[in-house]
Amino acid sequence: METPSISEKRRLPDDVETRIIHFFDQDIPPSFFLFAGAGSGKTGTLVEVLKALRNKKGDQLRCYGKRIGVITYTNAACDEIKHRLGYDPLIAVSTIHSFVWSLIQDFHRDIKVWLHEELGRKIDELHEKQRRGRSGKESAKREKDIEFSMMRRDGLKGIRAFTYSPTGDNKDRDALNHNEVINIGSFFIREKPLMQEILVSRFPVLLIDESQDTNKMLMESLLMVQNNHAERFCLGLLGDMMQRIYLDGKVDLKTSLSPNWEQPEKKMNYRSPPRIVELINKIRANVDRLEQQAKDGWDEKGHIRMFILPSNTPDKDEKEKQIAQQMAEITGDALWSGPTPNVKKLVLEHHMAARRMGFIEMFMSLYQVDSLKTGVLDGDHLLPGLVLFSKMVWPLIQAKQCGNEFSVMAIVRNHSPLLSKSAFLMAGADQSVQIQKTRAAVDELMTLFNNNDSLRFLDVLLCVSRTGLFEIPEILRPMTASTLEEQQQVTNLPDDPSPDTSLADVEMEAWDQFLLTPFRQIEPYLAYVSGKAEFDTHQGVKGGVSKNGLHGPNLLPRIWASSADTSLPPIQYFGTLTGFSA
Question: Do residues 406 and 505 share a domain?
Answer without folding.
Answer: yes
